[in-house]
Specification:
11% of the residues lie in helices and 47% in strands. It folds into 3 domains: 27 residues; 104 residues, Jelly Rolls (Sandwich), CATH 2.60.120; 82 residues, Sandwich (Jelly Rolls), CATH 2.60.120.380. The protein has 1 helix and 21 strands. A hairpin with a 5-residue loop joins β2 and β3. With 249 residues, the chain is mainly beta. It has a 5-stranded antiparallel beta sheet, with no helix packed on it. Keywords: Membrane, Transmembrane, Transmembrane helix.
Protein backbone atom coordinates (compact mmCIF):
# COMPACT_ATOMS: atom_id res chain seq x y z
CA UNK A 1 0.00 0.00 0.00
CA UNK A 2 1.50 3.34 -1.04
CA UNK A 3 2.05 6.14 1.44
CA UNK A 4 -0.57 8.90 0.82
CA UNK A 5 1.97 11.50 1.97
CA UNK A 6 4.40 10.78 -0.89
CA UNK A 7 2.58 12.82 -3.60
CA UNK A 8 2.44 15.79 -1.22
CA UNK A 9 6.16 15.47 -0.47
CA UNK A 10 6.92 15.23 -4.19
CA UNK A 11 4.86 18.34 -4.99
CA UNK A 12 6.50 20.22 -2.10
CA UNK A 13 9.99 19.21 -3.33
CA UNK A 14 9.24 20.48 -6.85
CA UNK A 15 7.89 23.72 -5.39
CA UNK A 16 11.04 24.23 -3.32
CA UNK A 17 13.24 23.46 -6.34
CA UNK A 18 11.43 26.01 -8.54
CA UNK A 19 11.59 28.71 -5.86
CA UNK A 20 15.30 28.00 -5.30
CA UNK A 21 16.09 28.19 -9.03
CA UNK A 22 14.25 31.51 -9.33
CA UNK A 23 16.17 32.85 -6.33
CA UNK A 24 19.52 31.87 -7.85
CA UNK A 25 18.61 33.49 -11.17
CA UNK A 26 17.61 36.75 -9.46
CA UNK A 27 20.77 36.76 -7.33
CA UNK A 28 22.94 36.09 -10.38
CA UNK A 29 21.39 39.07 -12.16
CA UNK A 30 22.54 41.38 -9.38
CA UNK A 31 25.87 39.71 -8.54
CA UNK A 32 27.30 38.71 -11.95
CA UNK A 33 28.76 41.71 -13.82
CA UNK A 34 26.51 43.01 -16.57
CA UNK A 35 28.50 43.40 -19.80
CA UNK A 36 27.53 45.26 -22.95
CA UNK A 37 29.38 46.15 -26.16
CA UNK A 38 28.44 49.59 -27.39
CA UNK A 39 28.52 50.66 -31.01
CA UNK A 40 31.65 52.76 -30.48
CA UNK A 41 33.71 49.73 -29.49
CA UNK A 42 33.47 50.32 -25.74
CA UNK A 43 32.88 47.46 -23.33
CA UNK A 44 30.84 48.64 -20.34
CA UNK A 45 30.97 46.43 -17.24
CA UNK A 46 28.75 46.93 -14.17
CA UNK A 47 29.50 44.59 -11.26
CA UNK A 48 26.51 45.77 -9.24
CA UNK A 49 28.65 47.37 -6.53
CA UNK A 50 28.98 50.84 -7.98
CA UNK A 51 31.96 50.12 -10.24
CA UNK A 52 31.47 50.67 -13.93
CA UNK A 53 34.39 49.84 -16.19
CA UNK A 54 34.59 51.58 -19.56
CA UNK A 55 37.12 49.91 -21.87
CA UNK A 56 37.66 50.58 -25.55
CA UNK A 57 38.52 47.63 -27.79
CA UNK A 58 40.08 49.44 -30.77
CA UNK A 59 39.57 46.47 -33.09
CA UNK A 60 35.83 47.24 -32.90
CA UNK A 61 36.19 50.96 -33.64
CA UNK A 62 35.59 52.31 -37.15
CA UNK A 63 38.53 54.74 -36.96
CA UNK A 64 41.04 53.32 -34.42
CA UNK A 65 44.07 55.30 -33.27
CA UNK A 66 47.37 54.41 -34.94
CA UNK A 67 50.16 54.20 -32.34
CA UNK A 68 53.86 54.91 -32.91
CA UNK A 69 56.91 53.84 -30.97
CA UNK A 70 59.01 56.54 -29.32
CA UNK A 71 62.31 54.73 -28.88
CA UNK A 72 61.35 51.67 -26.86
CA UNK A 73 58.18 53.22 -25.38
CA UNK A 74 54.62 52.88 -26.64
CA UNK A 75 52.15 55.32 -25.11
CA UNK A 76 48.54 56.27 -25.57
CA UNK A 77 45.20 57.17 -24.05
CA UNK A 78 42.02 55.36 -23.14
CA UNK A 79 41.19 54.80 -26.81
CA UNK A 80 44.09 52.31 -27.03
CA UNK A 81 44.99 51.73 -30.67
CA UNK A 82 47.01 49.68 -33.13
CA UNK A 83 50.67 49.42 -34.06
CA UNK A 84 51.97 48.24 -37.46
CA UNK A 85 53.65 44.85 -37.09
CA UNK A 86 55.26 43.94 -40.40
CA UNK A 87 56.52 40.52 -41.42
CA UNK A 88 60.14 41.66 -41.13
CA UNK A 89 59.68 43.03 -37.60
CA UNK A 90 61.72 41.62 -34.74
CA UNK A 91 59.96 39.51 -32.10
CA UNK A 92 58.95 41.89 -29.33
CA UNK A 93 58.61 41.75 -25.56
CA UNK A 94 56.08 44.11 -23.99
CA UNK A 95 56.01 45.18 -20.33
CA UNK A 96 54.47 47.98 -18.34
CA UNK A 97 56.87 50.93 -18.36
CA UNK A 98 55.61 52.21 -15.00
CA UNK A 99 54.08 50.58 -11.94
CA UNK A 100 50.56 52.00 -11.98
CA UNK A 101 47.02 50.72 -11.63
CA UNK A 102 46.09 49.52 -15.09
CA UNK A 103 45.05 46.45 -17.01
CA UNK A 104 46.35 46.24 -20.56
CA UNK A 105 45.30 43.68 -23.18
CA UNK A 106 47.44 43.05 -26.27
CA UNK A 107 45.94 41.46 -29.38
CA UNK A 108 47.34 40.50 -32.77
CA UNK A 109 46.00 40.21 -36.30
CA UNK A 110 48.21 38.61 -38.93
CA UNK A 111 46.82 40.45 -41.94
CA UNK A 112 46.52 44.16 -42.74
CA UNK A 113 43.04 43.42 -44.05
CA UNK A 114 42.02 42.94 -40.40
CA UNK A 115 42.63 46.62 -39.63
CA UNK A 116 38.94 46.94 -38.73
CA UNK A 117 37.39 43.60 -37.81
CA UNK A 118 33.85 42.38 -37.47
CA UNK A 119 32.51 43.21 -34.00
CA UNK A 120 31.47 39.57 -33.64
CA UNK A 121 35.07 38.36 -34.00
CA UNK A 122 38.01 39.52 -31.89
CA UNK A 123 41.72 39.17 -32.71
CA UNK A 124 43.78 36.62 -30.83
CA UNK A 125 44.78 37.81 -27.37
CA UNK A 126 48.52 37.58 -26.75
CA UNK A 127 48.06 38.14 -23.02
CA UNK A 128 47.41 40.79 -20.40
CA UNK A 129 49.65 43.06 -18.34
CA UNK A 130 48.65 43.66 -14.71
CA UNK A 131 51.96 44.73 -13.14
CA UNK A 132 55.67 45.23 -13.81
CA UNK A 133 56.44 41.49 -13.67
CA UNK A 134 54.07 40.55 -16.51
CA UNK A 135 55.40 39.99 -20.03
CA UNK A 136 53.64 39.68 -23.39
CA UNK A 137 55.50 38.36 -26.44
CA UNK A 138 54.55 39.45 -29.96
CA UNK A 139 55.86 37.44 -32.93
CA UNK A 140 55.56 38.63 -36.57
CA UNK A 141 53.65 36.49 -39.04
CA UNK A 142 54.64 35.80 -42.65
CA UNK A 143 52.34 38.68 -43.69
CA UNK A 144 52.19 42.27 -42.45
CA UNK A 145 49.84 42.56 -39.49
CA UNK A 146 48.82 44.68 -36.52
CA UNK A 147 49.18 44.74 -32.75
CA UNK A 148 46.18 46.10 -30.83
CA UNK A 149 46.26 47.60 -27.33
CA UNK A 150 43.18 47.86 -25.12
CA UNK A 151 43.40 49.65 -21.75
CA UNK A 152 41.18 50.85 -18.92
CA UNK A 153 42.96 54.07 -17.90
CA UNK A 154 43.37 57.56 -19.35
CA UNK A 155 47.15 57.24 -19.87
CA UNK A 156 49.47 54.27 -20.22
CA UNK A 157 53.05 53.45 -21.25
CA UNK A 158 54.55 50.18 -22.43
CA UNK A 159 58.19 49.20 -22.71
CA UNK A 160 58.68 47.47 -26.09
CA UNK A 161 62.02 45.73 -26.68
CA UNK A 162 63.30 43.06 -29.10
CA UNK A 163 63.51 39.53 -27.74
CA UNK A 164 67.03 38.10 -27.49
CA UNK A 165 67.06 34.75 -29.30
CA UNK A 166 69.33 32.29 -31.09
CA UNK A 167 68.31 31.33 -34.66
CA UNK A 168 68.13 27.60 -35.43
CA UNK A 169 70.57 26.68 -38.20
CA UNK A 170 69.62 23.99 -40.74
CA UNK A 171 66.30 23.33 -38.93
CA UNK A 172 68.00 21.58 -35.98
CA UNK A 173 69.56 22.48 -32.63
CA UNK A 174 70.67 20.78 -29.42
CA UNK A 175 72.03 21.78 -26.05
CA UNK A 176 71.59 21.83 -22.28
CA UNK A 177 70.02 24.29 -19.88
CA UNK A 178 67.68 27.15 -20.69
CA UNK A 179 67.53 28.79 -24.13
CA UNK A 180 65.41 30.97 -26.38
CA UNK A 181 65.59 29.61 -29.93
CA UNK A 182 63.98 30.98 -33.08
CA UNK A 183 62.92 29.55 -36.42
CA UNK A 184 61.73 31.47 -39.45
CA UNK A 185 60.06 29.69 -42.34
CA UNK A 186 56.99 27.84 -43.53
CA UNK A 187 57.18 24.82 -41.19
CA UNK A 188 54.36 24.42 -38.67
CA UNK A 189 55.75 21.73 -36.36
CA UNK A 190 58.91 20.46 -34.68
CA UNK A 191 60.02 17.48 -32.60
CA UNK A 192 61.62 17.98 -29.18
CA UNK A 193 63.66 15.19 -27.60
CA UNK A 194 65.23 14.89 -24.16
CA UNK A 195 67.78 12.43 -22.79
CA UNK A 196 69.05 11.99 -19.24
CA UNK A 197 67.24 13.03 -16.08
CA UNK A 198 65.38 16.20 -15.22
CA UNK A 199 62.48 18.08 -16.76
CA UNK A 200 62.13 19.84 -20.09
CA UNK A 201 59.53 22.52 -20.73
CA UNK A 202 59.11 24.14 -24.14
CA UNK A 203 56.82 27.10 -24.70
CA UNK A 204 55.94 27.76 -28.33
CA UNK A 205 55.63 31.50 -28.97
CA UNK A 206 54.26 32.06 -32.46
CA UNK A 207 52.02 34.63 -34.15
CA UNK A 208 48.73 34.72 -32.20
CA UNK A 209 49.93 31.88 -29.95
CA UNK A 210 51.64 31.28 -26.58
CA UNK A 211 51.44 27.59 -25.60
CA UNK A 212 53.28 25.36 -23.15
CA UNK A 213 53.71 22.61 -25.76
CA UNK A 214 56.16 20.28 -23.98
CA UNK A 215 56.30 19.54 -20.26
CA UNK A 216 57.83 16.19 -19.37
CA UNK A 217 60.71 14.53 -17.50
CA UNK A 218 63.62 12.19 -18.25
CA UNK A 219 63.80 10.57 -21.68
CA UNK A 220 61.04 11.36 -24.18
CA UNK A 221 60.26 12.75 -27.62
CA UNK A 222 57.31 15.05 -28.36
CA UNK A 223 56.05 16.93 -31.41
CA UNK A 224 54.68 20.45 -31.06
CA UNK A 225 52.93 22.59 -33.66
CA UNK A 226 51.91 26.18 -34.33
CA UNK A 227 49.15 27.60 -36.51
CA UNK A 228 50.59 30.60 -38.37
CA UNK A 229 53.78 30.49 -40.49
CA UNK A 230 56.47 33.10 -40.04
CA UNK A 231 58.73 33.43 -37.01
CA UNK A 232 58.38 31.13 -34.00
CA UNK A 233 60.27 31.18 -30.70
CA UNK A 234 60.97 28.13 -28.54
CA UNK A 235 61.42 29.06 -24.89
CA UNK A 236 63.32 26.11 -23.42
CA UNK A 237 63.54 25.47 -19.68
CA UNK A 238 65.63 22.49 -18.62
CA UNK A 239 66.74 21.23 -15.22
CA UNK A 240 69.19 18.65 -16.56
CA UNK A 241 69.95 16.25 -19.38
CA UNK A 242 70.29 17.14 -23.05
CA UNK A 243 67.60 18.38 -25.43
CA UNK A 244 67.35 18.57 -29.20
CA UNK A 245 64.99 20.27 -31.65
CA UNK A 246 64.23 19.12 -35.21
CA UNK A 247 61.93 21.36 -37.26
CA UNK A 248 59.69 19.49 -39.73
CA UNK A 249 60.65 21.28 -42.93
Amino acid sequence: MSDPGLPQISRFSRFVWVIGALGIAVAAFFVVPQVALRGDGRIVVDNGEGYVGDRVYPQHVDDPVELTLDGDTLSGGQQGGWLPFDADSAPLMLRMAHDHDNYINVFQTSDVADLVTDRAVSPESLGALWDMDDVVYAIPAATDGRLWVSVDSARWDLSVTPVAHTPIADAAASGTGDAMLSYQGDALSARFSHTGSGFLRVTVIAPEQFDLAVNDVDEFSRRASWRVPGTVLFMIESSGGEWSVAVDE
